[in-house]
Write a structure and sequence with these properties.
Helix content is about 45%, strand content about 5%. By secondary structure, the protein is mostly helical. A two-stranded antiparallel ribbon has the order 1-2. The longest helix has 13 residues.
Length: about 70
């Protein structure tokens, strides 16, 4: 999960991963609840076959870089 909603909304992360156990995706509710990622955070639950991470982004920096590249 990344970007504004993925980084900051534990409810969205839980809703998105809910009922995905059949695909091997389990999150740790305690790790997920209230997390606001300042660095890459692993929220993978026990028994999950898939790693689940919350990864902070710097969207403003990417917009600035893209704008600079287009302006050149």
């Amino acid at each position: 999960f990344t970007a504004g909603v993925g980084e900051n909304d534990f409810g969205v992360r839980e809703a998105v991963t809910n009922d995905l156990e059949g695909l091997g995706i389990i999150i740790d509710k305690a790790k997920n609840d209230g997390l606001k990622a300042r660095k890459d955070e692993d929220i993978t639950g026990e028994g999950s076959k898939v790693k689940v991470f919350v990864v902070p982004t710097n969207e403003e920096l990417m917009i600035a870089r893209d704008t600079l590249a287009l302006a050149k």
